[in-house]
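Q: I have 151 residues here and want to know how they pack in 3D. Can you give me a structure?
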Amino acid sequence: MADISIHSKFSNLLELLIEAESESGGQAFKTFRDVIKFASVLGMRGEVTVESDNRGRVIPFRVFENSKDHELIWLVALVETKDVDILRRDEYRDNETEAVGIFQGYANGGLEVIWAWLENKAPSEYFDVILGKISESLSAEIEVEDAPIRF
C-alpha cells in the first residue's frame, strides 16, 4: 500500500498542531493520524487539494490500517470518484495507490486551509481558532449533492 506523503511546507504545522493546547489544557489532535484525518475531510469539504512534493513527512499506510482508520481513505476515494470500482481489487487497476493519492491530495489541501486559518496566530490560539472554524462550519447551511454512485 502506498503511504501518505505530506507536503514539506506543512511539516512544522503538523508538529505545532500536535503540541497545541487550549488554555484549559485540551488538545485538538493527539497524533499525526488525527490531524491528517481531519485535514482530508476539511480539504474534501472545501474541494481543496494540494499535491505533495514528496519531501515532507510520510505517514505509513499501516498507521491507518492498524487503527481501522484506513476506511476513511477508501470513503474519501469513493466519494471523489463516485465509482464503487475504486473499492475492488484486481490486476488491471491500482486502486490502492489511486485511493491514497486522492486522500493525500485532500489531506494536503486541508492542511493548506488550516495553515490559512492559523496564519499570524500564536500556537496558544490554535485550538480555539480550529474549534471556532468548526463551529462556524457546522452552523452554515450544508447542501447535499445528489450525484449518484455508479454500481
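Q: Anything worth noting?
A: The helical segments are 11-19, 32-45, 61-66, 70-81, 95-118, 123-139. The chain has one domain: 4-139.
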